[in-house]
Structure formats: structure tokens, C-alpha cells
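Researcher: We're teaching a course module on how sequence relates to structure. For the next exercise, students receive a sequence and then see the predicted structure as C-alpha cells, so they can try to spot secondary structure elements on their own. Here is the exercise chain.
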Amino acid sequence: MRTAEIRQRWLDFFSARGHAVVPSAPLISPDPSTLFVIAGMVPFIPYMLGEQTSPWPRATSVQKCVRTLDIEEVGKTTRHGTFFQMNGNFSFGDYFKEGAITYAWELVTGSQADGGYGFDPDSIWVTVFHDDDEAAALWKRIAGLPDERIQRRGMKDNFWSTGARGPAGPCSEIYVDRGPQYGAEGGPVVDEDRYLEIWNLVFMQYERDNGGTKESFPILGDLKQKNIDTGMGLERVAYLLQGVDNLYEIDQVRPVIDGAVQMSGRRYGADHDDDVRMRVVADHVRSGLMLMGDGVTPSNEGRGYVLRRLLRRSIRAMRLLGVDDPALPVLLPMSRDAMRDSYPELERDFDRISQVAYAEEEAFRRTLAAGTTILDTAVAGAKASAPAETGARPVLSGADAFQLHDTYGFPIDLTLEMAEEHGVDVDREAFRTLMAEQRSRARADALAKRAGHANLAAYQDLHQTLASETAKPVTFVGYTDAQARSTVVGLLVDGVPAPAATAPADVEVVLDVTPFYAEAGGQQADHGTIVLDNGARIEVDDVQAPLKGLSVHHGRLVDGTVTLGEPGTASIDTGRRQAIARAHTATHLVHKALHESLGESATQAGSLNAPSRLRFDFRSPSATPADVVAEIEARVNERLQDDLEVTDSIKPIDEARAMGAMALFGEKYGNEVRVVSIGGDWSLELCAGTHVRRSGELGLVTLLSESAIGSGVRRVDALVGAGAYGYQAKERALVGQLSGLLGARPDELAERVSGLMTKLKESEKELAALRQAQVLALAGSLASGAEQVGVTRVVAYDAGEQSPDDLRTLVLDVRSRLGDSAPSVVAVGGVAKGRPVVVVATNAAAREAGLRAGALVRTASQVLGGGGGGKDDLAQGGGSDADRLTDALAAVRTAVAS
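Model: And here is the predicted structure for the students to work with:
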């Protein structure tokens, strides 16, 4: 049974039983404490926490998920994958344990002819929480399972919670016995390889408190509403139903393994290490495809770093399989074809996805080339530092290996392989220690973020209180009104709920009705004032929405006392609002103009809408030519002159997408969305921000720059309205100044400046040639004045202000003049742009005597407060303390003498 069919059977089964079919949310997590959606229930957390009311009593989905915590295990086990799909069915106060168990048994053991999965009922085992007698009794009654196939486990294995205050409950896991050839008898408590878990039923019936451990934490009591959250691993079920031994060989993954076989000429199944590499490639290519499909692009932080690591691990694995040619142009289309039945959007967006992927592979191939040079230097240093008399193999330090891995993206496996080729070991223990320290820092950072997220508890309590008392969220009237009569319904001081506060104080205020726009979608928040009827005055400088439907006004209480229930008037700064609205409308115009000039692949990757300025990030594999940027600016201003009408309307999400409205990658939208249109259907976007009424109100838009901010992502900065006019006035004044200085008309400035630049470059070349001639003239006298240090001739000279290139030229010339009849070392220092530089060269006789340029230059660089390296015959280093250049050269003499 193909994976796409298993997926569809799941959705059809639960749809026929009254569940709303909910499309998979994007892989980008809505929770700021996590990078990706890591479980099928993540999109439903607001309903389970009570932050929002579920629009359906029961729902089902097949959710895309990414986990990379066990990335090092990928390919080595049967079930570790970074991308996976989680089938889920959910009940929000509807059915509970009996319903969940009934549905699970029907689908798992129902015949394939009737839409089930057709597992043998005699192969099914289950686990329950150790004191959940109700679940155990239901399994007996509904499924007829005997006691020995219902095993009880403790809180660690069969009790679910978020790890913080919130819903929790016992769970029941369903296992399939794969047979004695896979392990010992005795059920899942004995062997979880033979007895493979396929489905987890979570019965959310309690509320837990903070604190405790995974095996023991405080329970506050029963939830008001009991929920069901289940998760079935789609890939696990697929490899059981397809009769293969692991998830890498199912129909959605195996084609990439076959592609790796074709490219490498190696046979899958012939060598364990090669098999692991092929599985890594298949898993990571698929994960990368799905992440890029949801708008993630490679970078050095956050989600982009995870994607970069996945792609680079797959490229590196192909290299270890003997493939030096680009691999992704062959393998990525194979993964697309395997996944498109379940995700047809991959085919539609493949041009964009492939541009990003292929550019990343090409960049990593360059990194490998550069890393190889750096590794060669480190290997040479290891050899130079190895004591020759002991005969021990040289050792590359863990710090060098970690720097190659962390700074240059050079994989440790490749470092190990290439060091071995040079007869050099790697200090793996030190490397692992540094990696562990890095992971500890990352875990601490994640814990800090999670702790920050836990501080939402005060807002959650307030939100729940308001929902129970008013049965409606905060009402936003800012689309039409700049001022509103309001009542204080929530007050926090120092993040803690308070009944009152007296000036002066920093406060967070929640109003029942507000004209203030909370920061969202790249648009900055409104500023303004809240004046209460009792005379209290709050100056608002930020507005945030920590939970949907809850706007929190951050500000300074400057007069009086604010109390809960006090009425007043909320007023926004209309000048600021209009300046931001102009910027936001300009953002839509820029987005549309980019599409017209660069194509539909130039999709939005982020934005900032601030007073009179905007920043727009978009996906593009290469820089936008200057003439195209000018074309985009001209098109935007042309649309301003057309004075297009700007309107908004509320539409069902499917209707809005059918209209062609553009959506932001990774953004989570509800069933109904706000569509902002400019000029009818010329520009259509899903947007909750504020806008002007006609495009002519913008006045002028000036694009300041277009630049790269990451792999495959570009940024446009622009000024709007007053900002653009002010910039234009400054440019005009600058042009006037230059015209006066150069005695030329404005239209002659470019030609005049170009002429001056040409003359300047010619003069610089003449000066460089003169300096080089002067330096080379020194070579003869330096060689003839070489100092005898033992059996070695040494030249150590401070050349003053010189470029590194001139220093190298001088050093090589002096070494050549000294010849090879006796050991010779040449060390010349200088200062380039305020920083000291030392270049050291040795001849063949010196190297035979154990004098290596790389080691000597490191000695000098340490004196200068820096570092350096190079080959045995020529090396360069430097530092930060130019005043110690003489001491550094003396250190080279001392090193030669010793």
C-alpha cells in the first residue's frame, strides 16, 4: 500500500465519522520557543490550552513534522528520520477514551477492502498508564485483547504533558508484533524493535502544574473539558504495510537511495557504511525539499541553519560515496516525484525550491574547497608540532577540528577522512567535548526561551477570565476609528496581574475595545494615549498580542491611578498610524512590482513597516540588477500616480486563494481571512494590517538599496512619503555641492567623477610599482647581511609600512638570493593598514634541519597577539600589537637558535 494511499485512508476514515479534515500547517512553528512543528498536535495546542475555541468538536489531519535532535542516528536505525508525517485525530470536549479506542481498533484491524489497514488483530499489543483501569477495560471490551497483551507502564512512558503548566493525561500506545525474527517475546516492555509502536492515544483529562520531573510532577485537578489527541506515524505504518525493514525503503524515500546508487556506482546492501550514507542522503534530501517548500532558506542561524545542515550532510555523504559532481540536481527531482501525490504544491513551487537548493550546493562545494585549504594548514601544523623522536602519529587538535566544523561548515567526518589520508589523527575526545559544550549552550538557550514562553501563563489566565466573563475577545476598531471609548479589563505590573497601579509606573493594560494596532505581520504597533475618566493618563509606546484576541498595551502611567473596570478614552497617534499605513501599502506595491519584474518566485520572506520606511525581504537566488531595481521603483511610482483604490474584504480562505491572493510562507491563517486589494485585482494579498485608501496618498517611494541577507534571500529598503521627499531633498543638496566642487553641471558629474577615479587608480598603480621597486632593491643588501645563527643564515627585517603582497615578494627574493647551500630562514615584518604582518620563508636545507615556516610564523604571531600559519616553506601571520614587531622578529631568531 503506497504511503499516499495510507494517508488518504486515514483522512477518509475520520471524515466519514464526522471529523473536520484540517490541512497540514506549515513546518514553521507558531511557537517562538521551537523552530519547527515537531508533533501532529502542535497546530491544535491553542484549542487544547483553552486559549482559543476550536471551530470544530472533532478534527483530523496529516501533519508535516521535522525533528533533528537525533540527526546523528539517521540511517543507523530503522526509524530515525528528520522529516515525518503524523496522522492525528482530535476531540475537543466531544468523544473521549471509548471513542478513541473504538476508532483506533476499527482502522488498524479493519479490512483493506473496507478502507482499513488490515493488520492482524492477533499481532496487536497495547500499553496503558499503570493505574488507568478504564482504558484497560475498554481494550478488553472493544478489541477483545487478553490481559497479557495489555501492558501497564509508568508516567515516563504512558503519561503526556507539555512539560509546563497545562493539559496532561494518560496515554495508550498501540504496537504491532513483527515476529520472532525481530527480537524477544514479551511485548513492548521487553523489546520495542520487535513490537513496533504505530499509534499513541492521549487522553487529556488533567491540568498539571510547573515543576517536577518527567516521571513525577504535580497534578492540579481535572480539566473542565476533556480532549483527545492521537498520533500515528505514517512512515512506520508504511514500512510495515509495504514489507520493508525501515522507513528509508518506503516508496516516498527509496527512489533517492536508488538515485544515489546510480550516481555512485555502489550497490545498496553491500556495505554497511555505504548503506548508512545512502539513507542519510535519502532522508535529508526529502527533509530539505519539504522545508524549502514551506519557505525556509539556508542561513547560519535558526531554521535556516537546520536546513543548511541537512543539505550539507547529504552533499557530504554523496562525496563519501565517491560522487564529486553536483548531486542535488539529480536527487531533488526524484524526491519531488515521490512526494507530489501527497503534496502537489511541491511540483508547482519546484523552480523556486530548486534554485535555493542548487545555489546552496554550489556554495558548499566552494566551502569544501576552502575548508580543504584550511585543513591542509592545520594538518601541516599538527605534523610540525609532533615530536619526531617518539615516532607517534601527529594529532590535529580538537579545537582545529571544531573550528573547521563550526566556523567553516566543514563536516567532522570529512576532517577525519582527509586527516587520515595525511597520516594524522584527530583529537576526537576534545572535539566531542567542544560539541557537547555547544549543545549545552543551545539547550540552555532553548530552555530560556521555553521559560519565557511559560511566562505567558499570566496572559493565558487573563484571556480565559475574559472569555468566561465576556465570551468574546478584545474588540479591535482601528480599521475605522482612531479613538474609542473603552474600559480597563486587565492590568499587569511587572508581568503580574494587579487590581490597581499609581503613577509613575510601567503598566500593561488590556481594554475591552481598542483602536490600537498590535504589532503583527511586520507592521509596527500604534502609539498613543489612554485617558481614564478618573484623570489617569497612560502614554502607550507598544502594543503586543501574546495570544490571539488579546491586545496588551504597554506604556507609562504618568498621572493618576488606573484601576480595573475604569472607563476612559483610547486615542492613537494618527500621524504615526498614517505614516505606517503608507509604508504598508507601499510594501504591497513593491511586492507586486517584484513579481512583474522577477517572476512569481520572488515571494515574500519577511517585512518591516515603520513610519515612512519599509523593509521587504524576498526570495531570489541572485542579486537584482540595478536597472531592474530602477524599473521596480518606476513601476511603483507609476501606480501611485494612477491613484488606485485600496479596499479590504473578509473572505473564506479557499475563496481568497482562488482569487489569487498572495499569502506569506509559514503564516498560519484561519478559515476566514482579510484580503487587501489595490487597483481591483492588480494586487491581492492576505493581510491584517492597516492601509491608506488610495495609492496616491503615498506621495513618493524611493528604493534605497537591494542586498543579500542570506542564501537565496534578498532585501529591499525603501522610504515612503515624507521620508522619500526628505531623502530626495538631501540628494539634491549633495548634487549641488558636488557640482560646485567639480565645476560641472549635474548631468556631467558621473563622467567627471569617473575620470577622477581613473586618474587616482593610475596614480595608485604607479605608487605601488615604485614601492615594490624600492622593496626589491633591499633584497640584495638583506641577503648579503644575513646573520649566522648556529649553522643557519637568518634574515630578520622590519620593512615598515608595506602590503602583505610586497612582503611576500621581498621574502621570496631574499630566500632565492641566499640559495640552498646552507639552511636559511627569512623573516620580514611590516605594518599594513595599522596591523602588523610577518612573513617567513625557509629553504630546503632549513626544512631538512627541522625549521618550518608555519611553526616559526606562529611563534612571531603569538608575540603580536594574533595567529597565522601556512606551509613548511612559506607562511604568513599577524596580530594586533604593531609596537611589538621587533620583539616578534627576535622571537624567530630565538626559535632558530634553539
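Model: If you want an answer key for the exercise: The chain has 25 helices and 35 strands. Confidence is low (pLDDT under 50) at residues 446-454.
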